[in-house]
Design a protein that fits this description.
The complex is a heterodimer of chains A (252) and B (545). With 252 residues, chain A is an all-alpha fold. Helices cover 35% and strands 2% of the residues of chain A. In chain A, strands 1-2 form a two-stranded antiparallel ribbon. In chain A, helix 3 runs parallel beside helix 5 (182-195). The longest helix of chain A is centred in the N-terminal third of the chain and has 19 residues, at 52-70. The radius of gyration of chain A is 32 Å and the shape is extended. Chain A starts with 15 loop residues before the first helix and ends with a helix. The model of chain A is unreliable at 80-110, 147-166, 185-223 and 239-245 (pLDDT under 50). In chain B, the strands form five sheets. A three-stranded antiparallel beta sheet of chain B has the order 1-3-2. In chain B, strands 4-8-5 form a three-stranded antiparallel beta sheet. A three-stranded antiparallel beta sheet of chain B has the order 9-11-10. In chain B, 57% of the residues lie in helices and 9% in strands. Chain B has helices at 3-17, 19-31, 36-43, 47-59, 79-83, 88-113, 118-132, 141-153, 239-258, 261-273, 290-296, 305-317, 338-358, 360-372, 377-384, 388-400, 428-440, 454-467, 469-487, 492-499, 504-544, and strands spanning 34-35, 63-67, 73-77, 116-117, 157-159, 193-194, 203-204, 234-237, 288-289, 323-327, 333-336, 374-375, 405-410, 420-425. In chain B, strand 2 (63-67) and strand 3 form a beta hairpin. Chain B is built from 21 helices and 14 strands. Chain B is mostly helical and 545 residues long. The chains are: A mainly alpha (252), B mainly alpha (545).
Chain lengths: 252, 545
């Protein structure tokens, strides 16, 4: 039929002339690789606009960039706290006390540079910023941890754990992987419950507890990962005995 | 959101707020609405860092939250709003041209802090202005407040949605998140405060509901000793209004360059009159009588009524159709066709891009196809008077870059290629989208300098800065030493010695770096202008269809 016309030869299904190639002409090469990263261009670009407006905006832009870095909204990545455990205010990255976002900035990012003695004395303190809690969802508020009664918390803790078989296991495992003190552990579970979908009567109880807990504030620092047990500094007398017990508890 | 836009958002967030906020923000943009736990789990950051990042993002109006049933709160990022961060210098500069230094600082403070109360803004701006003034003079709060009121009246700043007043009657457990109410009427209503001087007690005659926080829920950790009377009433910069202003500016300058300065002024007057009466995205302004325009012309232009009428007729008859005549009452009713103006500008941008990338012959072909709508290969060669081989080559180049597209018209129902017409056409909307995307993206496959992608620019700038970090730090340290020595009074010789710590080639390197960074920054600003134009055009077209 019509398909056998160009037997053995390349026959196109359409009229090649319509696309602009004459018959028998050499077709352009097939492209075998992606175009180069910095291709040559035929025409040089037009120079940039210059003028008062542009200069002013340029200066503004650069100034804004600098200013943003100094605002309390710029959150530095917390560095590894090597050898600075247990300190509250001196250190790189984020340290918060009383939920004030007092960020302690280093002169440079120590991760990429050698540690210098002088960096301790080159700190820049930023302004604090406290968000307006009335405009934010409740779960944004920091959880206030109860330092006072780790033992009673433990009791409540075990109670809650058994009764909560439905809670998302994945979230729980995440919490467990982070080595925290008991006080925070029970808090986390309370938080979890609040946000979780299985609301039962426990929901109301939890909210009350939460409200009570929020009245007692805890150090933000304890939320960060460290190997030290939180009650380390609390019970001076029974230090040795206590810490072992807490070690066990912490490995939930 | 396209990958290119997400990439750009990531760069912007990182520059302005740091890596943690960037990680959370990008995650939200990619995945849409998510609850707190899911964010923490998916990004692998600790819960409290996620909370902090979200607080920052919500403060800057980049993320909104919504309460779903069963008490879950979900957070959603506004990608378009994040991209507008690129335009901050332009907003601030516009405020400066319209309302002077005071206006500039007010808008700058609002943009830097997201939302603020009026008293906080006024105080901060007055302090900043006082610093720049001569010794002994101070900036009065009332002046700043006056400028603020003017900004609110022209809608450049607006109130944020208000938190519900908590003198509530429901005794049940409080909702997991406050529902913020948008009060249309009060959006630009300035609370009546009389802020006096500096340091004196502020009196207020009237105030809006701020309310006491619920004692049960919150424990105050506020540092301020007194509660300002307009506490709880937050203001933000109204960016859509700025966009409207930019559009107007673009139209006016287009008219002025096409005809003359006077016609530009006439269009400016007409736009100013219809500013507050026209809705934000309307394609046409409200009709204006020529007598109205005549009355409101700026004082310097004393042209007679007939001349004005002639200008208006000329504008209305212009093939670009920026101005249309909609009636004859009142000496002639005229409307300004914003949509048509925007599409003309977008088309002009496309033409200019084609010209700069491919040459003027390509541009001729492009304009030809634009004008004739659909053309066959043969017809293109004939009309453009360009030899077949070259015309074919150029057409394919433009086709591969998606400025031109092919339209198939089959002669037979089986769509056989030998019996199908292939017509070249320009679809302005899709070409505009392609160009916009190229403006955003990182790895352009065929980088073209005139529309250099912004993300590329930002990355290159960061790369350059990082490469020369050591040198930059050294120069900063030297400057600091110099400054401190000068302050304590050092000799010339000593100062020169310190300056020589930076050798000549290093100085050269620094100069080059500074020049490059400036050039990259300036390019960013100018690419943003193109982006704005294309975005407005696409938005306006989508609204009509």
């Amino acid at each position: 039929m019509a398909g056998n016309k160009g037997r053995g030869r390349a026959a196109y299904t359409f009229n090649i002339e319509a696309v602009g190639f004459t018959r028998g002409e050499k077709l352009p090469d097939v492209v075998l690789k992606p175009p180069p990263l910095f291709p040559d261009i035929d025409y040089k670009p037009v120079p940039l606009k210059t003028g008062e407006d542009e200069d002013y905006m340029l200066a503004l832009k650069q100034e804004l960039r600098e200013t943003m870095k100094r605002m309390p909204f710029f959150i530095e990545t917390p560095e590894e706290k090597q050898g600075q455990r247990g300190e509250n205010t001196v250190g790189e990255g984020l340290t918060v006390s009383d939920w004030k976002w007092e960020v302690v900035l280093e002169g440079k990012n120590p991760n990429l540079d050698i540690e210098r003695y002088s960096k301790r004395y080159m700190k820049v303190y930023k302004e604090e910023w406290v968000p307006d809690w009335r405009r934010l969802p409740r779960e944004m508020m920091p959880r206030k941890k109860c330092k006072k009664d780790p033992k009673s918390k433990k009791a409540k803790d075990t109670g809650k754990v058994t009764s909560l078989s439905n809670t998302a296991d994945v979230l729980k495992k995440i919490e467990e992987l982070e080595k925290r003190g008991d006080a925070e552990k029970s808090d986390e579970e309370n938080e979890e419950k609040e946000g979780s979908k299985e609301k039962s009567k426990e929901g109301d109880e939890d909210e009350e507890e939460d409200a009570a807990e929020q009245e007692e504030y805890d150090e933000e620092e304890q939320e960060e990962e460290n190997d030290y047990i939180n009650s380390y500094f609390e019970d001076g007398d029974d230090f040795g005995a206590e810490s072992d017990d807490n070690m066990d508890e912490a490995t939930y | 959101m396209t990958q290119a836009e997400i990439n750009l958002c990531s760069l912007l967030l990182q520059e302005h707020f740091g890596e943690i906020v960037e990680k959370i923000g990008v995650h939200l943009i990619r995945t849409g609405s998510q609850p707190l736990r899911a964010i923490a789990h998916d990004t692998g950051t600790s819960l409290d860092q996620v909370k902090k990042a979200l607080c920052v993002l919500i403060q800057h109006n980049l993320v909104v939250y919504q309460v779903h049933k069963r008490g879950m709160v979900e957070y959603e990022a506004q990608c378009g709003r994040v991209l507008w961060m690129l335009r901050y210098p332009r907003y601030i500069y516009t405020a400066k041209t319209l309302y002077g230094d005071t206006g500039e600082l007010i808008v700058e403070e609002l943009l830097l802090n997201g939302k603020m109360t009026m008293s906080a803004v006024v105080k901060k701006v007055a302090d900043r202005l006082t610093e720049t003034m001569e010794d002994g003079k101070t900036m009065d709060y009332s002046e700043v407040a006056h400028t603020f009121v003017r900004l609110a009246d022209t809608h450049f700043v607006q109130r944020c949605p208000a938190a519900p007043a908590p003198e509530n009657s429901d005794p049940g457990p409080p909702p997991p998140a406050p529902t913020l109410i948008v009060n249309e009427k009060d959006m630009y209503l300035v609370p009546k405060l009389s802020l006096i001087g500096k340091g004196k007690r502020r009196r207020s005659s009237d105030e809006d509901a701020a309310g006491e926080p619920k004692a049960k829920r919150l424990k105050h950790t506020i540092d301020t000793k007194e509660r300002t009377p307009d506490d709880g009433v937050y203001w933000q910069a109204h960016l859509a209004r700025f966009h409207q202003h930019f559009c107007a500016q673009a139209v006016i300058s287009a008219v002025a360059s096409r005809m003359d300065q006077t016609s530009g002024e006439i269009v400016r007057t007409a736009l100013r009159l219809s500013e507050t009466t026209t809705a934000a995205g309307a394609p046409l302004t409200q009709p204006l009588a020529s007598s109205e325009i005549f009355r409101s012309l700026p004082v310097g232009y004393n042209i007679s009524k007939q001349v004005l009428d002639q200008y208006l007729t000329l504008l209305a008859d212009d093939p670009l159709e920026f101005v249309g005549k909609s009636g004859d009452s009142g000496g002639g009713m005229y409307v300004i066709n914003l949509h048509k103006a925007l599409s003309c500008l977008a088309t002009a941008t496309l033409e200019s891009v084609v010209q700069e990338r491919f040459g003027s012959r390509c541009a001729r072909i492009f304009r030809l196809v634009l004008q004739k709508k659909h053309l066959e290969q043969k017809q293109v060669e004939d009309f453009a008077m360009i030899p077949a081989k070259e015309a074919k080559d150029m057409l394919y180049k433009m086709l591969s870059e998606n400025f031109i597209s092919l339209q198939e018209i089959p002669k037979t129902p089986d769509h056989a290629p030998s019996r199908t017409f292939y017509l070249y056409t320009v679809n302005v909307l899709s070409a505009a989208r392609v160009l916009l995307h190229r403006c955003y993206k990182v790895t352009s496959s065929g980088a073209s300098r005139p529309t250099q992608s912004i993300a590329n620019l930002i990355e290159r700038r960061q790369f350059e800065t990082k490469e020369n970090k050591r040198l930059l730090e050294k120069s900063q340290r030297v400057d600091a030493i110099l400054a401190s020595m000068q302050a304590t009074g050092a000799e010339e010789a000593q100062l020169r010695e310190i300056e020589e710590m930076i050798s000549a080639p290093e100085r050269q390197q620094l100069e080059t770096l500074k020049r490059n960074v400036n050039k990259l920054d300036a390019s960013e600003i100018q690419v943003d202008e193109t982006i704005f134009l294309l975005e407005s055009y696409i938005e306006s077209t989508m609204k009509r269809s």
